[in-house]
Amino acid sequence: MATTALAAPRSPYARQKITRSNFELYSWMFMRVSGVILIALIFAHLFVNLMVGEGVKAIDFGFVAGKWASPFWQIWDLLMLWLAMIHGTNGVRTIINDYAERDGTRLVLKLLLYVAFTIVVVLGTLVIFTFDPCPADAPAELLASFCTA
């Protein structure tokens, strides 16, 4: 059994020379601030989608199309997407740092995490801003009732 020698209790404390950035501090602060903002965004989102109007039974393709016709709701949903993804990615990054023991494992897990983050954010942003409920070349029988053929 290996033992580690401890310094004598009365010996002066020798501070190690460690150069660090404040990244972890800013990351911690971001988690708190983004969490509060996300709570407000999500509860307002749920209130508008579930309580206003006819409730959950009214949520369909037309409801989403009508909502995303407004730049306000596009930005709202985009902000929710980005904040939730950055918040979640930062949380999983912290978990990987805490529990992945080997540097190689940590690198691979973080690489997979960042690739997944990038794919979801890019595709989600594209869907929000390029969504067209009435495409020009679609057959009339496939179009929603509110589209003019």
Automatic annotation (TrEMBL):
- TM ranges are 25-48, 68-86, 107-131
Concerning Gene3D superfamilies, the annotation shows: Fumarate reductase/succinate dehydrogenase, transmembrane subunit
Q: Give an example GO molecular function.
A: heme binding
Q: Which cofactor does it need?
A: heme
Give GO BP annotations, semicolon-separated.
Answer: tricarboxylic acid cycle
Q: Does the keyword section mention Signal?
A: no
Tell me which InterPro entries the record gives: SQR/QFR_C/D, Succ_DH_anchor, SuccDH_FuR_B_TM-su
Q: What do the Gene Ontology cellular component annotations say?
A: membrane
Pathway entry: Carbohydrate metabolism; tricarboxylic acid cycle
Membrane topology type = Multi-pass membrane protein
Keyword annotations from UniProtKB, A to Z: Electron transport, Heme, Iron, Membrane, Metal-binding, Transmembrane, Transmembrane helix, Transport, Tricarboxylic acid cycle
Query: Where can this protein be found?
Result: Membrane
Q: Which domain of life is it from?
A: Bacteria
Q: Which NCBIfam families match?
A: succ_dehyd_anc
Function (record text): Membrane-anchoring subunit of succinate dehydrogenase (SDH).
Q: What is this protein called?
A: Succinate dehydrogenase hydrophobic membrane anchor subunit
Its lineage opens with: Bacteria, Bacillati, Actinomycetota, Actinomycetes, Micrococcales
